[in-house]
Amino acid sequence: MKMSLLAVIMLSMMLGGNRQLVAASSWDAALDGIDAVYDGLTAVQTLVKQESLEISALRKKNNDALSALNAKIRAIDQTTVTRLTQETEALQRKHAPLLEQYASLGKQVTAAKKRKDKKSADMLELKRNQLKPAATSASAEIKAKKEALSAAKKSKTAKAKVVKDALVPVQTLKKRITAENKSVAAARKHLSAADKRYKASVKRGDAIVAALELKTVYDQTKAIHASLTKVYEWERQIAQNVTLAAAKLP
How confident is the model over 203-240, as pLDDT tens digits? Predict the structure, then answer.
């Protein structure tokens, strides 16, 4: 900057006895300051625009990759689990009449014994015992299928956990990005307000206030640039984590 705003103030103090001279000198200095700030502001604005586009592109790529990876995680051993679930349900439907009849006969035997109706109890016991081998076999078959299904689900969960654990850092990074985006939003708000004040001072021909407000616009734009630099790096780290997690798929 050809002459800082501080220099403008110092000059005003040094020339306090001549208000017209001070005003003219301050105005000229402020104009020089605006000229200098504009160059830096334009450069930073270009960076911010480029960074915003790069972040948007990388974020979309990361979100698509995460969606695809989560779909693959859900699909781990899902074919086996679905098959065993269907087979278990089919066995339960197949053997339901037999097992219900066997259980019902057991209840009837108990009721007959309570009534001290030995004849009925013996007859019912004979029927129940006749069904016992088939009922026992059916129960064992269903139990074995349920155990196979349970084992398959546990295996699926364990395999998925390996991949999900590798994605844990992604959530931390996303929280950082969310927080930083709030800082960017706040900076943009301050920037917008300063820009309006700058334009208003230009209309009034007030170079000194215009220089101050343009400097605020510049500072806020630099703050946005600093935040976007962080965000881009975190998005890049997310991409790396997603790649590493995908490599852990079975």
Answer: 998 888 888 999 999 999 999 999 999 999 999 999 99
For the chain, domain boundaries: 38-74+165-246, 75-156
CA distance 125 to 106: 8
Of 188, 218, 192, the closest CA to residue 34 belongs to 218
pLDDT of 13 > 70? The answer is no
Tell me the CA distances in angstroms from 203 to 12, 15, 48, 214, one per residue in order: 23, 27, 27, 14
Topology given in CATH for the domain delimited by 38-74+165-246: Four Helix Bundle (Hemerythrin (Met), subunit A) (1.20.120)
pLDDT in tens, 27-51: 767 677 777 888 899 999 999 999 9
The C-alpha atoms of residue 208 and residue 201 are separated, in whole angstroms, by 8
Helices (H), 78-206: 78-114, 118-166, 168-204
CB 74 within 8 A of CB 156: no
